[in-house]
Design a protein that fits this description.
By secondary structure, the protein is mainly α. Helices cover 62% and strands 0% of the residues.
């Protein structure tokens, strides 16, 4: 191409397309939200397995609907759902952090 301005525009458009595609690959969530969810979800790995794929008696979180995870975490926070430790763990997260984790686990297959 002999037109550097056109080449620059095409390069910028391709970059933007890649960014949008990356966000859509994670259920339409922004990259920063996905990263935050992944970091927060790592705290759950000791009991619920890497990426929420539990191997033992603990519940699998991977692939569960976001709303289900949010509802369960809220139930733990308020004491509506009995637990040995989850009620204390859930109280340590904001509603946004719970939503970020729920998005992350819902996207896992």
């Amino acid at each position: 191409m002999k037109n550097p301005a056109l080449l620059g525009c095409l390069g910028s458009a391709l970059f933007c397309l890649c960014c949008v595609s990356g966000a859509r690959a994670h259920g339409g969530h922004g990259i920063e939200e996905v990263r935050a969810g992944r970091v927060l979800a790592a705290n759950c790995a000791a009991c619920h397995g890497t990426d929420g794929k539990a191997q033992d008696a603990m519940p699998v979180l991977a692939g569960k609907p976001k709303q289900y995870i949010v509802e369960q975490m809220q139930a733990f926070k308020t004491g509506k759902r009995p637990a040995t430790i989850m009620h204390q763990i859930a109280k340590g997260y904001t509603d946004r952090q719970i939503a970020q984790m729920a998005d992350y686990f819902a996207d896992q297959k």
